[in-house]
Every structure is written in C-alpha cells, then in structure tokens.
Amino acid sequence: MSMPDRLAATEDSLNALTGHESRLFEPLLALLPVDGLSISTFGHILAAETISASDAQSFRLDELQFDLGEGPCWDALETAKPVLEPDIRERPNHVWPAFSEAIIAENFGALFAFPLMLGPLRIGAIDLYTNQPYRLGEQDIQHVEILATVVSRMVLNRALRLSESDLVGEADTATRRAFSRREIHQATGMVLAQLGIPAADAFLVIQGHAFAAGRSMLDISSEIIDRRLSFAVNEQQIEGSHD
Amino acid sequence: MIDSTREDRLIDTFATLADTLVADYDVVDLLQTLVERCADVFDIAAAGILLADADGELEVIASTSEASRLVEVMQLSARAGPCVESFTTGSVVSLPDVEDSPPEWQRFRDSAREQGFAAVFAIPLRLRETTIGALNLLSSVPGALPPQDVRAAQALADVATIGILQERTLRESMSVREQLTNALTSRVVIEQAKGVLAHSRGISMEEAFTVLRTYARTNRLLLSRVAQGLVEQTLVI
Predict the structure, then answer these.
(1) Domain region containing A189
(2) Mean pLDDT for chain A?
(3) Mind telling me how many Å the CA of B10 is from chain A's nearest CA?
(4) Which residues pair with B49 in a beta bridge?
(5) pLDDT, tens digit, for every residue of A53-81?
(6) What's the number of domains chain A is made of?
(7) According to CATH, what is the number of the domain B6-173?
C-alpha cells in the first residue's frame, strides 16, 4: 500500500474504533516506527486519564507525567507543538527537574509527545517512545499531526458521551431545544469561519467549550452570535477570548 | 397604474410557484417565496412554515423574517398552540383572537402578545392521510380569516407540500421521511452559512440571509448549493 493510502487506512481504522477508544493505539502502532504509545487526556478541560496504551511502559510514562505535573506531554499541550526527544537519555533537548530524574531507571531511547487539540480546545496528548534512540522522519511527524486531529475528535466525543451531562445536550424543554438548534447552527457557521475548520469540528468546539465552561450550548452559541465570544486565531495558537 | 387585486396577486403567486416547480429548484427557497407571498396576499404581519423532523418535532424551515423572536413565537405555537394542533389534527386551526387561547397555550399567547400578533391561523401541510407540517399565518389585527382566504391558504399549503415532497422524487426514490429530513438538513446548512457570512462580513443573521439569497438569485444558483459552498469554504462571497 502506498503511504497516502496507508495514512487514509489508518484514519479509517481509528474512526472505526468509536466506542472502543481503549484500542486507539492499535492503528497508530501499526503505522509508526515506534515501540509503544499512549493516548491521554489532561489539562483544563478533561480529567487526567490514559485513554489507550499499547503496553505497561507507555501507561507508566503517562502516570509519571501526571504525578509529576511535568514532562513532554505537558509541554506539547502548553506550546501546541510536538516535543521531540530523539535521545532522551544521552542528549536531551530539554531537562525536566523531576521527570528526567524519574525516567533514568526506565528503558526509553526516544520520546515524542504530540498535542491533542481541536480548535481552541486543548484536550491531551499522544506519547510515543522507542527503546533505542531514534529520530522521527518529517513524514512520520506530519502523519502523527494529522492523526492527532482524528484522535482529538474521538477522545472529545468519548468524553462528551460519557459525561451524560444535560449541559452539553440540548435539554431544557423541547421548545427550547428546537429553537436553540437554529442558533447553534448559526454559531457553528461563525466558528467554522473563524477557525477555518469543518462544520462538524466547529460544532464539537462549541460543545467542548460548553462542557469545559459547565454551560449550555445555547448559552455559548448566543455569546458567539452576539460577538461576545470569538475564537480568534493568534499566530499559530488558537484561543477562545471574551471581549 | 392600478393596484392589483388580491385575486391577481394570488394567481401571480401560483404562477410563480408553478414556474419554480418545473425547474431544478431549492426547497427552502421555494418555501421562502411562498411565505413571503402569503404575507402579501393575505395582508398579514408574518408567515412561516414548520416541518416535522424525524422525532416528530416541528421546526421552522421558512419564515417571513429571520428575527429570532418571530421564530420563537412559531416554535412555541409548535409546542403548545395552533401550529401543533393543526399538525396533529390535520385541519385548519383558527385563533381570531390570541386572548382566547386556552390556558395550556399560555407561553405561546404571551410570546404572540409581546410580538404584537393578535390572530393566528395554522394550515396543515397534508399528503393524503399524513401531515408533514403546518403553514402559520400571523396577523397584527384580531379577526377571523374569510372562508375564501382559508381555501386559498390551504391551496398554497398544498403547493408547499408538493414542493417539499417532489423535489427529490424527481431524481431519486426517497421516502417521505427521507425527503423531510433532507429539507430540514438543507435548512441547517443555510443557518451555518448565515453564520459564516455574519462573521466574514460583520453583519446580522438577518442581513446574512438576504445576502445569501440575493447571491443565489443573481448567480442563478440553488440557495442550498451556495450555502454548502460557504460552509465547506470552497466559496467566498
């Protein structure tokens, strides 16, 4: 299979795992030249949790970073960029006071962390490792970035599904529900134009933002329509901002 | 120049709609034309068409104004009011004075009163035994609709039904349910497109709809196509 085909096939395999998110590592591990990987959520929106891990060592890597509150995955999410450590033990690009110390005893050659984001929402990270030092190629980096978006969407959907919160649903009375949809669609249009993303993602951004803020989608949509809330693109980073 | 009589306007309306139905047309655009003509022909303040979605909930698909408060009064009518009554019974429901609303229509009555609507009429969109939605006429003055107006309104509602159900049958065989879902989905895309325009041009949702429709007309494009292009960001207007 050609590389673009393999990438597309991996995307399909990921999407097919809806409802089985603990297996999300499988298609990624099959595509990428790494020994193990994990997908986790943390940060302001979702609780710190490993969603999917290929092995105990990946799981341990997440756990360490959660416990210590530092490490590549935190930096990746903070900077909205991948953190690449081709030789974490001998030639680290960055030294974390506690994390670097903690992994001395662990068998890691290279560590890579990619942020999970959707629009302005910072969701978590994908952590990958190899046992020996290894430099990820440009193409692999690009692929992980593309696949991270697919994973972000799925992980956020999973969280919203599990929350069963009527805040994110369009509860209220059925009247409000039907009426509110219109405004949610209008707000979706505004957000997709602000961020240059597909409508389905813009909807998810509103939903995720409502979830994070503990408010209803209708509330958030009204703010967007009234231009009290906008998701402006600042350089490479995207932030939700209130006027 | 003489004022055209109401009969002339009615005939003109049917002619316009008939012209539309023979060509490739857009269901939301057709219904939009229809509600606007209704307001004109019956000399009323506002009109709207609501369709039942897959859950049987009535949703506004076209209205003379995009103002959210008008949409809201129609949605309330669709919850507990003349609109849902017409939809469930499949018959015309006349409310010549909103003050005569039964207690269970209180929220609708309050909203109608607040918007300055004194009389409301709901005409079912029927296909044989099935009712797919309702046409709502809202008047700022109290009083019954004359019998000939009720007949004319029912005829226009029938045209709307044909328009909604015929659109897809021309090309694909789709169930009534699928066609309704399709019509409602194209409304969703139009709402999203309004959002895109509201953002890119810094205008209101109401202005955005006018821009959208004018662009489609001027360029002889289907409203839903233009909306889709905007949402997919393949078209910039």
Answers:
(1) 165-242
(2) 87
(3) 31
(4) B62, B135
(5) 999 999 999 989 998 889 999 999 999 99
(6) 2
(7) 3.30.450.40
Continuous H helices in chain B: 6-22, 27-41, 68-79, 82-89, 106-115, 147-169, 176-201, 205-218, 223-231
A181 — contact with chain B (CB < 8 Å)? yes
The per-residue pLDDT for B1 is: 40
Q: Which of A136, A162, A188 is the last residue of a domain?
A: A162
Q: Which two tokens stand for residue A125?
A: 């990270």
- A12 C-beta neighbours (distance < 10 Å), count: 11
A189/B195 CB distance under 8 A = yes
Q: Which CATH number fits domain B186-231: 2.60.120.280, 3.40.50.10190, 1.20.1290.10, 1.10.10.10?
A: 1.10.10.10
Using a CB-CB cut-off of 8 Å, the residues of chain A touching B192 are 185-186, 188-189, 192, 199
Q: B188 and chain A: CB distance < 8 Å anywhere? A: yes
Q: Which residues contact A106 (CB under 8 A, 6 or more apart)?
A: A57, A60, A61
Closest residue in B to A187 (Cα) is B195
pLDDT in tens, A12-42: 999 999 999 999 999 999 999 999 999 999 9
